[in-house]
């Protein structure tokens, strides 16, 4: 369980002015839940994720994982970034094996596990490729496999499909759901796409434009396993998407449009 | 088409050298100046130098100083540059110092260093060290500074400590940039090697050159220039081969191999 407790985050802009990025956020994420944080760009949703990751420490408030205060990054929380952040000097296999090797898993064992993971994310045959030789979608698959390889309890996904074209994005969403529905890790997923959030999540946390506050938390009560072809035709899915979009529109100046 | 392209690329540097020699030959014949021997005369004088035991000892001594100065410079400069690139405090401490030293021609320090440390190996090696250090520090600094933050975060999430991130993420990520600095440093090592021997005339390749100049043996002077130039090309080619192996992962698809950075 992740508990975010009255977290506020202040930044100094380059003009040396204080900028309130997050204001008094409290949120609890249950184990095994797929939770999306949805909001317009600049609402601090990524910052919230970085606080849970331990990459950024909040100006006020605290975040806890399993009751213990988060003081820094750790292998229990695995990030996947929009920028992929692969190690360009390592091959696909080398990237995926990096975490397990760091944790002392024997090379042969790590290699077997990682090859299986690479196959699972659909990159069999690309084990010896370098990141520069891969497309954006493939890079993000490698990044996902690299993070899954060290078995984090929570996946922290920071607009992971934001840099991809629509087609690739859809395929990765489907594959992510398939993978997730197998082992149901806790996922905290940052996005600005309403469809993406509804399609993937159990719970959507809507945020307001800066300073970022929680505006509404919506339970997405749609059956799993979800299939895109069925879901897109499901009136309940359509209603969720339309309702959320409408809520953002009505927010006007206060809530801000997407 | 590709194979013809590759063959053309391979032949090009040799054609350039040959062209230069032909131009030189023609110019020298046309000018008929004692202090400007023909290319052929200079080439014929090369065996005179390379066949002379003392000259060879001199050249080897030069190369030893250069190797030591270069190696020590790299060992010191890369960690320093990387730390400057990752820590603002370290950078703001060293930056002013380096900015003062950078524009000073290192050979200009030679007379003072000679006063302190004598005319021997130590002074010359120190000058070479200074000449190599700055570009290597600068490029290591730039390389480390531009390492993607999220890459370091990914490493931190895997459990890498700050020191491990430095060695296992910042160093390899900055390696292409570091090696660019080393390549510049290598050329500068050769330059400072010759100039240091020009000022402290005691031994070395530069000493042979300037002795020959004093004696008016111009074909020997030009032969020595060719030898030094050839050393530079060989060193650079060797370094480039090593570099290409180390950072193949970062190379753009079509790389124009330049011999001088």
Number of domains of chain B: 1
Which class of chain B in CATH terms? Mainly Alpha
Do you know the CATH topology of the largest domain in chain A?
A: Rossmann fold
Helix coverage percent of chain B: over 70%
Structural category of chain B is mainly alpha
- The figure for the number of domains of chain A is 2
Oligomer classification: heterodimer
Strand content of chain B: under 5%
In whole angstroms, the N-to-C terminal distance of chain A is: 29 Å
Basic shape of chain A: globular
Strand numbers in spatial order across the main sheet of chain A: 6-7-8-3-9-10
Q: Taking Cα atoms only, what radius of gyration of chain B do you get, to the nearest Å?
A: 22 Å
Shape of chain B: globular
Q: Based on the structure given, which CATH architecture of chain B is correct?
A: Orthogonal Bundle
Overall average pLDDT of chain B: 90
Give the count of helical stretches of chain B.
10
* Unreliable stretches of chain A: 253-258
Cα distance, first to last residue of chain B? 29 Å
Which topology of chain B does CATH recognise?
Answer: MetI-like fold
Number of helices of chain A: 9
- Give the biggest sheet of chain B: none
Which keywords apply here?
heterodimer; A: 258 residues; alpha/beta; Rossmann fold; 2 domains; six-stranded mixed sheet; four-stranded antiparallel sheet; 9 helices; 10 strands; 24% strand; globular; disordered C terminus; B: 261 residues; mainly alpha; MetI-like fold; 80% helix
Care to describe what's here?
The complex is a heterodimer of chains A (about 260) and B (about 260). Chain A has 9 helices and 10 strands. Chain A has helices at about 45-55, 90-100, 105-120, 135-150, 165-185, 195-200, 230, 235-250, 250-255; strands spanning about 1-10, 20-30, 35-40, 60-65, 70, 75-80, 155-160, 185-190, 205, 215-220. Chain A has a 6-stranded mixed β-sheet, with helices on both faces. Chain A has a 4-stranded antiparallel β-sheet with strand order 2-1-4-5, with helices on one face. In chain A, α2 (about 90-100) crosses α3 (about 105-120), α2 packs parallel to α4 and α6 crosses α8. Chain A is globular and about 50 Å long. Chain B has a single domain, classed as MetI-like (MetI-like fold). Chain B has helices spanning about 1-30, 40-50, 55-85, 90-100, 110-115, 120-145, 150-155, 160-200, 205-215, 220-245. In chain B, α3 runs antiparallel to α4 (about 90-100) and α9 packs antiparallel against α10. The two termini of chain B are about 30 Å apart. Classes of the chains: A alpha/beta (about 260), B mainly alpha (about 260). Chains A and B meet through β6 and α2 of A and α7 and α8 of B.
């Amino acid at each position: 369980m992740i508990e975010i407790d009255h977290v506020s985050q202040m930044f100094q802009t380059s003009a040396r002015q204080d900028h309130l990025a997050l204001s008094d956020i409290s949120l609890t994420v249950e184990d095994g839940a797929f939770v999306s944080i949805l909001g317009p760009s600049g609402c601090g949703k990524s910052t919230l994720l970085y606080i849970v990751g331990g990459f950024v420490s909040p100006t006020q408030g605290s975040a806890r994982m399993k009751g213990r205060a988060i003081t820094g990054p750790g292998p229990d929380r695995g990030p996947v970034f929009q920028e992929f952040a692969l190690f360009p000097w390592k091959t696909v296999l080398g990237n995926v094996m990096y975490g397990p090797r760091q944790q002392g898993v024997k090379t042969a064992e790590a290699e077997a596990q990682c090859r299986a993971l690479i196959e699972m994310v659909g990159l069999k045959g690309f084990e010896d490729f370098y990141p520069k030789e891969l497309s954006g979608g493939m890079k993000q698959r490698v990044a996902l496999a690299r993070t899954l390889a060290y078995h984090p309890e929570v996946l922290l996904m920071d607009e992971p499909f934001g840099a991809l074209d629509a087609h690739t994005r859809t395929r990765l969403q489907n594959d992510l759901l398939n993978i997730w529905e197998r082992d149901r890790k806790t996922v905290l997923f940052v996005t600005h796409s309403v469809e993406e959030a509804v399609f993937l999540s159990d719970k959507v946390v809507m945020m307001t434009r800066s300073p970022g506050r929680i505006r509404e938390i919506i339970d997405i009560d749609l059956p799993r396993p979800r299939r895109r072809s069925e879901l897109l035709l499901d009136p309940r899915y359509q209603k969720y998407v339309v309702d959320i979009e409408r809520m953002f529109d009505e927010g006007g100046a206060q809530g801000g449009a997407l | 088409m590709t194979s013809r392209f590759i063959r053309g690329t391979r032949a090009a540097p040799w054609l350039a050298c040959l062209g230069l020699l032909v131009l030189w030959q023609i110019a020298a014949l046309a000018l008929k100046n004692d202090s400007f021997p023909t290319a052929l005369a200079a080439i014929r004088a090369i065996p005179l130098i390379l066949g002379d035991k003392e000259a060879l000892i001199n050249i080897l001594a030069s190369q030893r100083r250069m190797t030591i100065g270069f190696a020590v410079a790299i060992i010191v400069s890369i960690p320093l540059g990387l730390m400057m690139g990752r820590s603002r405090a370290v950078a703001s401490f060293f930056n002013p110092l380096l900015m003062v030293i950078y524009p000073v021609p290192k050979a200009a320090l030679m007379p003072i260093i000679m006063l302190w440390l004598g005319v021997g190996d130590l002074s010359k090696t120190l000058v070479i060290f200074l000449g190599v250090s700055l570009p290597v520090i600068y490029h290591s600094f730039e390389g480390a500074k531009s390492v993607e933050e999220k890459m370091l975060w990914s490493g931190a999430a895997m459990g890498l400590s700050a020191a491990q991130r430095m060695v296992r993420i910042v160093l390899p990520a900055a390696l292409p940039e570091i090696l660019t600095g080393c390549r510049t440093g290598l050329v500068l090592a050769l330059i400072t090697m010759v100039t240091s021997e020009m000022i402290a005339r005691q031994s070395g390749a530069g000493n042979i050159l300037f002795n020959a100049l004093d004696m008016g043996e111009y074909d020997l002077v030009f032969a020595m220039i060719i030898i030094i130039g050839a050393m530079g090309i060989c060193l650079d080619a060797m370094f480039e081969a090593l570099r290409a192996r180390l950072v193949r992962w970062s190379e753009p698809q079509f790389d124009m191999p330049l011999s001088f950075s």
